[in-house]
Design a protein that fits this description.
By secondary structure, the chain is mostly helical. Helices cover 76% and strands 0% of the residues. It contains ten helices and no strands. It binds malonyl-coenzyme A. Malonyl-coenzyme A is lined by residues 41, 44-45, 113, 116-117, 120, 122, 125, 129-130, 133, 161, 164, 168, 171-172, 175-176, 186, 189-190, 193, 196, 237.
Length: 259
């Protein structure tokens, strides 16, 4: 059995959900009524929306200064060597490190999404995709990047993911406030997420095959693995929510017309 299969089996095991407390929380809520978290959700989504917007602007600003885009002989978009931890930072390099650290911490704060789902008893949303995402992004992924390969290209992942999160938390903010967002908008956000994982895959592949010197190999392998897993999970989400559902609606309409 390959290591990938073993890891997959472990992560899909219901015991894994026990370890991180999701099953226990769901069980606890089963005996209770859904909690009204409307104001709390609005506040949480607004915080994440503005924090994500800040991270997009700040990574672009500091990366432009730090990497030297626009300057003659300035750095490339990809393949900037990750600084060794402990090395003195330039002014903009230190500011970039601060944004990345905020991004890393935001991954822990994103567990609030799970709390909202549990309290609302929206079990449909507490999917394997959701649990896997929240259980692996803060640790080991961002933890490993911040400890072993900060700086360099890390701004790219932070910037792309924060851009997607501006759209995602904007959507959740409107939904939490009771606004009926058109399905086409939801589909566009899932498409953005798929493009994001495609970009992350290309970026990791570039590190694996071309710029082999710029990041520790284990980090590159971790990024490749995550890009493939997330692309598969979000592809499945897309298929179930937009393709199968619209096929179901179309056949229901056909049956209603025939009746
Ligand atoms: C369109 C998506 C962004 C979201 O899909 P959903 O199926 O969750 O969308 P939905 O239509 O059910 O969302 C509306 C419901 O969410 C509630 N809601 C509001 N704020 C929320 C919050 N912060 N977290 C969780 N739920 C929230 C609303 O009140 C509403 O509840 P009600 O229905 O009761 O009115 C999708 O592409 C997606 O990401 N799906 C995966 C789900 C997931 O776990 N995503 C977040 C982590 S992944 C991630 O973050 C990837 C990345 O980095 O890009």
């Amino acid at each position: 059995m390959s290591l990938a299969t073993t890891a997959w089996d472990f992560l899909t095991e219901p015991h894994y959900h026990d370890i991180i407390g999701v099953n226990a929380s769901k069980q606890w809520m089963r005996r209770r009524k859904p909690v009204n978290v409307k104001s709390f959700s609005i506040l949480h989504n607004a915080v994440m929306f503005f924090a994500s917007l800040y991270m997009v602007i700040e990574t672009l600003r500091q990366a432009a200064e730090n990497i030297g885009w626009g300057r003659a002989g300035g750095g490339a978009m990809w393949g900037n060597v990750a600084e060794a931890p402990g090395k003195p930072f330039s002014k903009s390099g230190a500011r970039l490190a601060n944004v990345l650290y905020i991004h890393y911490l935001s991954k822990a704060y994103e567990f609030t999404d799970t709390l909202i789902m549990v309290l609302k008893k929206n079990e449909r949303q507490i999917s394997f995709l959701h649990i896997y995402h929240h259980a692996t992004t803060f640790f080991p992924c961002w933890w490993a990047v911040m400890n072993y390969a900060p700086g360099g290209d890390t701004y790219f992942t932070c910037c792309v993911n924060s851009s997607v999160h501006v759209a995602m938390y904007g959507y959740y903010l409107l939904s939490a406030a009771g606004v009926k967002v058109p399905k086409a908008v939801k589909k566009a956000i899932t498409s953005m997420q798929l493009v994001q994982f495609g970009l992350f895959f290309c970026h990791a592949l570039y590190g694996a095959l071309i710029a082999t010197h710029y990041r520790p190999r284990i980090i590159v392998a971790l990024c490749l693995w995550q890009a493939v897993v997330f692309a598969s999970l979000f592809g499945q989400f897309f298929w179930q929510n937009y393709v199968m559902q619209s096929k179901g609606i179309a056949s229901e309409n056909k049956a209603a017309k025939a009746a």
